[in-house]
Amino acid sequence: MTPKKNYPKLISTKWKELPPSIDAAIRMQNPTADQDGKIFFFKGSNYWKYENDQMEPGYPKLIKDGFPGVPNNLDAAFTQPAIVVKGGKVIREERLFFIKGKKFFLYDPVTGNSSSPQSLQENWVGIKLPITAALSLKNEMFLIGKKTFQKILLLTYTQDRVFGNIHQQKKIDQLLACESTKA
């Protein structure tokens, strides 16, 4: 598969208020919460909040004010979606993970509390560092390095720590399922 025509695009093409580069971004994935589908972008000490490609009023804001305990200058961020069973009962609320260096911070959007920094390598056996980006899709997570990525299958119960199966690192083009566009 090749990339869509006119892609990749600059971030500023779609979200004009953002700086030219960002540190991390997350899309909330909790169908029972008012934040579902909202996108947060992080750069330095600031964050921006978007809904339907429109920046919400009053942004940017300081990370320390909106996400207490989460550090500035993030390397990556991802969400672990809420688990909602038939009938709409939530068994586990959505969780946000912020990565900086060799540590991660777990943030609970319901309580607004953040965990103390925790070691990536002690909690996720086999993780290869450094991590420069992350992507979550349902209960799959991809940790992305400069040229490779690692796929992690997250457990679907309510653990305080995340455990997963670390797969062999693969070339970034395999994650994106596209042909290399090298000249």
Automatic annotation (TrEMBL):
Hemopexin repeats by residue range: 19-70, 71-127
Q: Which InterPro entries match?
A: Heme_transport/Cell_adhesion, Hemopexin-like_dom_sf, Hemopexin-like_repeat, Hemopexin_CS
Pfam families hit by this protein: Hemopexin (PF00045)
The protein's matches in SMART domains, at most eight in alphabetical order, are given as:
HX
Membrane-crossing residues? none
Q: Which PROSITE patterns match?
A: HEMOPEXIN, HEMOPEXIN_2
What's in the GO CC field? extracellular space
Identify the keywords attached in UniProt to this record, alphabetized: Signal
Q: Where is the signal peptide?
A: none
Q: Can you name this protein? A: Matrix metallo ase-14
- This chain's source organism reads Pelobates cultripes (Western spadefoot toad)
